[in-house]
Amino acid sequence: MSAVSILLVDDHPIVREGYRRLLERQPGFGVVGEAEDAAGAYQKYRDVTPDVVIMDLSLPGAGGLEAIRHIRQWDRNARILVFTMHDGAAFALKAFEAGAAGYVTKSSDAAELLRAVATVARGGRMLSDDIARAIAVERLGQGRSIVEDLGPRETEILRLVATGKTTEEIAVLLNLSIKTVQNYHYQIKSKIGARTDAHLVWLAIAARLVEIHDQPEQE
Length: 219
Fold this sequence. Notes:
Layout: E1 4-9, H1 13-24, E2 29-35, H2 38-48, E3 52-55, H3 64-74, E4 80-84, H4 89-98, E5 102-105, H5 110-121, E6 126-127, H6 129-140, H7 152-162, H8 167-174, H9 178-192, H10 197-206
Parallel strand pairs: 1-2, 1-3, 3-4, 4-5, 5-6
């Protein structure tokens, strides 16, 4: 049986090296490529067509949600496992909506990551225990995430706005016109009930799409 080929996507070279060593110590796994951002992930995927992509969501510029969506547009059979620090239900649900097959947090142990890679490679789906609990709590609770009515691209634009990106910067990152980004911005505010851009940012923080330390420093 041939080895499972893996593409690693993370913006930290040292982190990627650690994952590579972990994965390549396992029989039947082989890392065939690496990327540090969404554009690089898409290009490398087309170059090597791996069996599994291990994708971080926190990437410079366009994030992992956009990378997942873009790869899946090119190959509907792409098997993508999200491996990220984001442990909120909102991000996990949007990752699956974008086309991910698995979601494991970086607080999980190494064995859980390895099981997830094997499961996704076989065509299955995988959630780490903490994310499964987070989704269950949200579904059983009375609250409702603001992002439930947003698509993956709207969620990514909301995240970029909340991290301080301008309309022009978002347009370049996502290869959209400025007018299209402005329309998305208006639709997002309407859908989540944001009265102002500042209110929109705080709603994004409350939904755990961004953390306080992701905010741009004020002059």
